[in-house]
Amino acid sequence: VVLEPEAEKSLAEVMWLYSVNLLEKMLVLDAEKRVTAAEALMHPYFEPIHDPEEEIEAEKYDDTFDNMDLPLDEWKRITYKEILNFKPPQTLESKETAV
Questions:
Q1: Do 18 and 44 meet the contact criterion of CB atoms below 8 Å apart?
Q2: Which is more confidently placed, 17 or 98?
Q3: How far apart, in Å, do the first and last CA atoms of the chain sit?
Q4: Cα–Cα distances in Å, from 19 out to 22, 43, 46?
Q5: Which helix (H) or strand (E) covers residue 78, if one does?
Q6: How far is CA 40 from each of CA 13, 15, 34, 37, rounded to the nearest angstrom?
Q7: Could you tell me which SUPFAM superfamilies the record lists for this protein (predicted)?
């Protein structure tokens, strides 16, 4: 689609407003009120690149450790153990990078 210069400026302005709106939703401190990743992907800002077929649903965040009062050394041990046990998820090849 070829846009006239006025339309390009208008599109740029609209995308700027969308980006600000999305950032405001993502930067809410209260996690219960913050936009989820799935909701963010449905935002108009991502409409030009949104492809539900390529998007995987993330596992629910395990917050069991979040409110624990542990000594620093214990937090270091837990973090180190998580890093060692981390296995990146296997993903399908993106249409963008497919040859």
A1: yes
A2: 17
A3: 25
A4: 5, 9, 9
A5: helix 72-85
A6: 19, 14, 10, 5
A7: Protein kinase-like (PK-like) (SSF56112)
Length of the chain: 99
CA angle at residue 19 from 13 to 20, to 5 degrees?
95
d(CA 89, CA 43): 25
Distance between CA atoms of residues 57 and 80, nearest Å: 26
Q: Which residue has the tokens 């949104």?
A: 50
Each residue of 44-96: pLDDT tens digit?
999 988 888 888 777 787 788 778 899 999 999 999 999 999 998 776 665 66
**Which tokens is 48 given?**
């030009």
pTM of the predicted model as reported, rounded to 2 decimal places: 0.54
pLDDT in the model for residue 3: 46
Cβ-based neighbour number of residue 50 at 10 Å: 13
User: Would you say residue 1 has pLDDT above 90?
Assistant: no
